[in-house]
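Memo to structure team: turn this sequence into structure tokens by end of day. - J.P.
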Amino acid sequence: MIKFLPESTSVVLEEVPDRLTLAVDITNCQGHCEGCHSPWLRGDFGVELTPERMDALIDDNFGVNCFLFLGEGNDVDALLELVKHLNSRYPSMEVALYSGLPRTDDRVWDYFDYVKVGPYKRSFGPLNDPGTNQRIYKLERGKGRRSAADITERFWHKGIDPNRK
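Reply from structure team:
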């Protein structure tokens, strides 16, 4: 079962390049990043994310063209079932996963359009810092890691010191 926080679900512009993204906070985070901006997401609470709830979220947020799971939770099989629902019900909607883990289950790479991996490490900075250890990949759905393009540099903005530690 995948749980989420309905009250923190929002539409965002900067998490996935060129997409109007519905960002959903997933609880039961398995990462324990020092300096994490959302440590409360490690807890086992929230509401079960079901296909019906996803449909309602999408209906309530007209115009979104990407669904972002902010975390994997602790049930990869349930996560993949939700993504399969999105892929079949909304074939033109892209699906993204932000994982704080250094590695995801290999099956993830066949169902998502974007995957971000890597724990936050303060000394390397966040995704928008050129010194980051985190990576985000644009995938060609169904072709797995064979067609994963690293698009991390699209998040790097002028004015951030790459030598900051």
